[in-house]
Amino acid sequence: MQLLREFLRSALMISVCALLFTPGELAAQTKKLVFGYSTVGAMAAGSWMAKEIGAYEKYGIDAEMIYISSGPTTVQALLGGDIVGGVAATNAVIAAVLRGAPLVSVLSTANRPYHRFWVQPEITRIEDLKGKTIGVTRFGSVTDNLTRMVLKKYGLENAVSVRQMGGTIEVSAAFQNKQIAGAVTSSLRVDAGIQPRLLLKLEDLGFQYSMDVVAHSRDDLKRFPHVVEGMVRAYTEGVAAIHFQKERAYKAIAKYARLRDQKKIDEIYQDSILYLEKTPRVEPEAIDSILEFIGKKGVPLETFADNSIVDKMVREGFIEKLYKKP
User: Fold this and answer.
1) What's the DSSP call for residue 101?
2) Residues 215, 185 within the same domain
3) Residues near 278 by beta carbon (within 8 Å), at least 6 away in sequence
4) Mind listing the pLDDT tens digit for each residue in 125-176?
5) Domain finish residue from 180, 205, 230
6) Do 79 and 101 fall within a single domain?
7) How many structural domains compose the chain?
8) DSSP notation for 160-194
């Protein structure tokens, strides 16, 4: 954490200088920023690819990418100043803001739930989960939120235990060792001999849901808007590059997800293509499902999100140009 704080102090000092330059001059300045991501799945692939293709550097940002095991922990790192921006579970950011945290979401990675409910092979119906334990990364994470939404839908809130394991890798290990009966996650990293059963795809439940957002402090957005804008533009370029540079995307996924299994790499790649938003707006409908579940329906979108940068990119035709075939 001390190293991260040193990065942050350097980033803030250099970012102050950014206010003195024009956008063209800004790109020539290199700012060391620490960027966190709370998943080793498709929702972080846009930020990985942005780093891989040099998109952050294009906007004068030397982004130090670090993995943080869950959305709530990423929120804590943002609030503590250990990271300048990060990919975090949308529900975790919303919960923090409702408690007074000065955070803002500047983009949404996906606005529909792409996670799956994986269970042990002997479980064939969701009713078979009664009396069993489901694993989540951490309480308050996206896996926890979606798990509880599914249990509520099927009337199993009080019939199934939910246990926090720490992170995606820990959930997979618990599943392989049969410590849990199932888990809501993007994929399970288990040995080839283990055959998890796909109980359901959450997108089939028919509701919109903001999976993860890129969040910053409101103070950073106000004081250093060009820095935050550069990070949003870099991320958006990263998502576009996934569509056109498959081999490079595979390398980025293998590197940051720490995978060698080509099948697992391809799964993350295909999910990235299918689910990552090309225009990464934080959509009201995708936020409303989270607010309704926690009993806060009706809280304005602006409480949690600022779509001004994404909207600006749309007006400029920036995103449209990214998807024109070379």
Assistant:
1) -
2) no
3) 236, 239, 240, 319, 322, 323
4) 999 999 999 999 889 888 898 999 999 999 999 999 999 998 888 999 999 9
5) 205
6) yes
7) 2
8) SEEEE-SSHHHHHHHHHTTSSSEEEES-----TT-
Q: Which domain holds residue 173?
A: 116-205
Residues 183 and 255 in one domain: no
Q: What share of the chain is helix, strand, coil (3-state, %, to 5)?
A: 50, 15, 35
**Those residues with Cβ within 8 angstroms of residue 170's Cβ, 6 or more apart along the chain or in another chain:** 69, 137
What's the CA angle centered on 73, arms 71 and 74, to 5 degrees? 65
Same domain, 226 and 102: yes
User: Do 45 and 61 have their domain in common?
Assistant: yes
Contacts of 46 (CB under 8 A, 6+ apart): 109, 235, 236, 238, 239, 242, 272, 276, 280
Q: What is the SS3 assignment for 52? A: helix
What CATH number is associated with residue 258? Answer: 3.40.190.10
Is pLDDT of 37 > 90? yes
> Looking at the structure, do residues 26 and 129 belong to the same domain, yes or no?
no
Write down the mean pLDDT value for the chain: 89
Q: How many CB atoms lie within 10 A of CB 67?
A: 17
* Residues 214, 94 share a domain: yes
β-strand pairing of 116-119 with 182-185: antiparallel
Element (H, E) at 216: strand 212-217
Say which amino acid occupies 18.
A
30: confidence class by pLDDT, cuts 50, 70, 90: low
Residue 53's Cβ-count burial label (10 Å; 0-12, 13-18, 19+) is: buried
Which region holds residue 32: left if phi is over 0, alpha if psi is between -120 and 50, else beta? Answer: beta
Domain boundary among 205, 233, 266: 205
